[in-house]
């Protein structure tokens, strides 16, 4: 390629990038309806900047690298800012941050201190206060002039229309970020979709779209808020010498200033702040996309000055994006351990937050509706840390009419049984084939091994699949969880099984063959048991000695989670006692109630359920807790605890009473046996006095536990009347 051809190619690419970025700016800043993700946009900007660095002759005043925001082409009146509102330069990693820090310290000298604050993902506004009165609110626009949104700004509760204090500046131009709390964003989108309108792609666009409404009454309905992050003109009143001083003055005027900013001496502390919020990114109620680092001293800020686009004394450290755009290829459903059907999105695989994502959860059919996503949509996909990837919203600007609505299937994807609601009023539709549905069996077996149940580490998802639905042999060694404790080594060795993706239950595909991945899970190449076999048997032995409540949880009885199981075990002490208890007796247990009681009765009424219990019992699984025949000296006694005790937490006090057959409740009545008071007892103490209920201090409580109610009556506090 000749030199001139190369140059014209670069110029063409430059023009193309400028055009694409201008288009994206328009969609983002004017329409509040971007079609690119921020990551894609930043990629284009980066390419443009690199191109301009190697070909400075291409840089013109109209290049997006030289400008702030987008030209204003809206229905709002245009107003000029008193001082220009700039954007920020970015550092994408710690090297770029150090390079910036070294540069400013070289030019300005070290030791002026850095102010660190969160980079809120909202939209910048300028508020003009004259003698303390809010006279104007405007968007950033192109930095010189913005849109007059005064009436809309006035609807935001966090923004005072009148500053407080006697010595407010004559003229103050406050800058800050208007945002919509993440939670409100989800609610707003749901309401928009419900009303047949298009949802916003993310909280930032929702905030921008809500503020930039022609009708301020609509803005007023959106729970927007604001946080101050700077100022322009500041005439009269006390003059701040530093950014932090300015914030504290503005806080005193009644403006919303964050508690999360810090002034630190050097770059290493800046690094600590960045790391901290990298790990606590979702603590604030608003979305953040990074940290802004500013030189704190205003004298130094002035010395460093600004470029046409951004101050030299500040930099935005951007966190890796957690949101990307990708296609929602299909919506499928998975089957849970109780037969519950949950839809999930099949995504065009994409890398986000360090891993490739191909599936995203959608929780239930109404969630799909609430989010307003259609199959075929480009969607905003979010993956935050270890959290399961989630679809945020569709990018409606990219629809071409071929998208279609998701319809809930009528039959189970794994066993073909017709789906049904188990009870009237249920939210979730289920596969009723609990006994034989391979999906439910696999999920239940996997659950038996989970940490909340019997905690069998060697029994993971692959093993659960291999045991319940092997490719070979034909007959699975585990037909239901009853068989688990009757396994033998020779039944395990021949097993060949496909590997399933835990989140969806779908077979994993072997990249080299394109076929589902199959493994011989328990035997090595020589046909001998792998290490995991020995481990499995060891852990099965251990599992047999787990306490009763874990055994109960492992049975996958609807509504019987660890809490309820513990309450049941404490009260009844044995599986037999629970099985033979009446529904009323079950429901009377503290923390159990009628729903769980009915569910238990239903469960034990099924033959094959009782068989599971029997098989476990035969194999030596523990079916009763010690102390089953222990004394219950507090039987029929109700205790209320108020204030803080020295030797007991609220939970351990409750447990101590329950272990002796007593009951702990939250409110005092005539039927209350004793009220135990610690430090700072509340209104329950007064009520006990009024009703004449016996009152115990901590020593008296000890007597109650050790010697019973009669002994405790003797040591009740005598209250002088
Ligand atoms: N997806 C798209 O199509 C598209 C289009 C245009 C812009 N964008 C996004 O916007 C970015 C560029 O926008 P920008 O020019 O507003 O720059 P920016 O968002 O990178 O940084 C400047 C802005 O940060 C905000 N900010 C938040 N907290 C702040 C704080 N504590 N101190 C100071 N400022 C704070 C202010 O609004 C300020 O104007 C891009 O990197 C991209 O992420 C996306
Ligand atoms: Zn099924």
TrEMBL record:
PANTHER family reported for this sequence: CHROMOSOME TRANSMISSION FIDELITY FACTOR 18 (PTHR23389), DNA LIGASE (PTHR23389:SF9)
Gene field: ligA
Protein name (Swiss-Prot/TrEMBL): DNA ligase
Cofactor(s) essential for the protein: Mg(2+); Mn(2+)
Keyword Amino-acid biosynthesis: no
Catalytic activity: NAD(+) + (deoxyribonucleotide)n-3'-hydroxyl + 5'-phospho-(deoxyribonucleotide)m = (deoxyribonucleotide)n+m + AMP + beta-nicotinamide D-nucleotide
Residue numbers annotated as active site: 119
GO molecular function ontology, one term from the record: DNA ligase (NAD+) activity
Role of this protein: DNA ligase that catalyzes the formation of phosphodiester linkages between 5'-phosphoryl and 3'-hydroxyl groups in double-stranded DNA using NAD as a coenzyme and as the energy source for the reaction. It is essential for DNA replication and repair of damaged DNA.
Span of domain BRCT: 629-699
Naturally occurring in which organism (per UniProt): Actinomadura alba
Residues the entry annotates as binding Zn(2+): 412, 415, 431, 437
Entry's family note: Belongs to the NAD-dependent DNA ligase family. LigA subfamily.
Keyword tags: DNA damage, DNA repair, DNA replication, Ligase, Magnesium, Manganese, Metal-binding, NAD, Zinc
Span of the signal peptide: none
EC number assigned by the record: 6.5.1.2
Keyword match Ligase: yes
Binding site for NAD(+): 38-42, 87-88, 117, 140, 177, 294, 318
